[in-house]
Amino acid sequence: MKKLFGIFAGILPCLMLSGQAQSDFVPLKELFKKDFLVGVAVNARTITGDPGKMVIENFNTLTCENEMKPQSLLYFRSQRPAGAPPQGGQPGQATQPQTAQPGQPPQAQPGQPRQGAGGFSQTPQKLDTINGLVFNWASADRIADFARQNKMTMRGHTLVWHSQTPAAFFTDDKGNQLTKEQLYERLRIYMTAVMNRYKDIVFCWDVVNEALSDSPGNLYRTSGKWYEICGKDFIAQAFRIARSVNPNVKLIYNDYNLVDPAKLDRAVTMLKEMKDAGVPVDGVGMQGHWSKEVTADMLNTAINRLAALGLEVQITELDVTTYSNYHGEGGKNQVQETQPYSKEVEDRLADNYKTYFEVMHKNADKITSVTFWGLDDGRTWLNGFPVRGRTDYPLLFDKELKPKKAYYSVKSVYVK
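The structure corresponding to this sequence follows.
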């Protein structure tokens, strides 16, 4: 009887939240507790008020949506992101194509500082200079402190990425491009500062993000500054530096669309080469930016091929668009208008989520965590991506924080 009362007492607070007042609601971390950790990407707005309460009740890990990316943590007087045009649009902000890749939204995300000579004029400041690099820890610290206060862990996202890294990270004070050796030394300074600051709360780091090509015949993405200066070697070097900084944290390679057979082949090739060369990669993050085109067989195959390399699998950045696939050529064939959240859309989303969690439940011995990329439909980067102004409904909770049919379809996998 005491045990039953304890379970009821643990669930009751979340039932009292305005968005979760259904008597049949079970928190996600309770549903998945025998399978894997469950997390959510958050920003400053997500950890206060009712959203913050909902985060505490449902999740045991957090990921910063943008606040731990180099563009947010670093300050250079010229804060233009690498690869962005030097003129046009908001100062220092890249012009975003309609079909940009996931993780590269069409406008600045919450928690992302206003860029340019003004630096951090629009965000709280906690400036710190370490070996010539200027950091602003305020936004990331706020989320890390929230996690500490609520006994949650964090996924660190992300240390090395072709996007959302200041262009000045790759140049000296005179604007000259760094050599490979100079860039590796700067990376060592950066990673040491960041990883040590959050060492107590971060259980894994996305060390390198999205380094694989989407083009047939090419293994690596060649368009970024990392590849331009260092070639493919920057990937292995980043993992080796990360391991030297922290021998205990899990080191993850993270990428999108790994359910696609061709891209999965590229990922397996790269990761096997890394493992064979002794590169300290512990796992792979499968970004779950999925759509109705992703089948159970595609997901099951990807999980098992990656796990067969001796890597733990994490499902990262999970959201399921109610439109069509936007990866690769799919981005060119998008519906431009917002579709209503009809019964057909609702049912299809619920079926998709059930399918994916059935596969993940079956492979729970290979998966260590699942992270949703956003709390609810009102706080998703897919509102406006890949089509500006278009509304999507990709998560388990609606914009009022109420569980959708998709939530109950996931619950049905665990509660019969």
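DSSP finds twelve helices and eleven strands in the chain.
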